[in-house]
Amino acid sequence: MARAGDHIQTTIKKALAGSQIAYSTLLDTFWNEVYGFQLKRTENENDAEDITVQTFSKAFDKLNTYNADYEFKTWLIAISKNIHVDLIRKRKKNLETGGHQDVVKKVLDDAPSAEDQLIREQNLASLLLHIKKLKPHYQEVINLRYFKELSYADIAKELNEPINNVKVKLLRAKKLLAEVIQKK
Fold it and tell me: Any idea where the RNA polymerase sigma-70 region domain is (predicted)?
């Protein structure tokens, strides 16, 4: 009988081979645990969500450095803790000095997912109503990607965020939008 850990290791291998569905599966599987962990630490939904987005962004960017001897969730939580500590340091420093810089990173090509297909099948008026139910930053990435048809790099410039953050936000926004559509 296959263990849950074996399934995760297989999914990680597929992600490393470039499967967008595998990345989406990892995000869906571990989002709530990382977000919940950060919500307890920060006691702030926006900070918890931002840190969780950054955690997956960094994890996906450095996936080739993941050591399978350790649980994937433990690795994600460690990244998440470090991002939170960095955020606290950065805020302290910004209070003293002010200013920040972001670096745009490489893009993973994305094949259409089940969520993409569901989103495409909606008529525009009802789709816009569904989008309005999402948090503003998710509305924004959906708008930039699907209505303004911007590339990940252009969205990253527009939002002044690292490209991997944009990709994770878009994955998350598509999942949430698909859930809203399926509820109707």
Answer: 32-93
Type of residue at 106: K
What Rg value do the Cα atoms of the chain yield, rounded?
A: 17
**What confidence tens digit (pLDDT) does each residue in 91-123 have?**
887 776 644 443 333 334 445 566 666 666 666
Contact 137, 118 (CB under 8 A): no
Q: Which CATH code for domain 4-96? A: 1.10.1740.10
The residues of the chain that CATH labels 1.10.1740.10 are: 4-96
Please name the residue that has the structure tokens 């990435």. 141
pLDDT tens-digit map of 46-98: 889 999 999 999 999 999 999 999 899 999 999 999 999 988 888 887 776 64
Q: 114-183 architecture in CATH? A: Orthogonal Bundle (1.10)
Distance between CA atoms of residues 55 and 33, nearest Å: 12
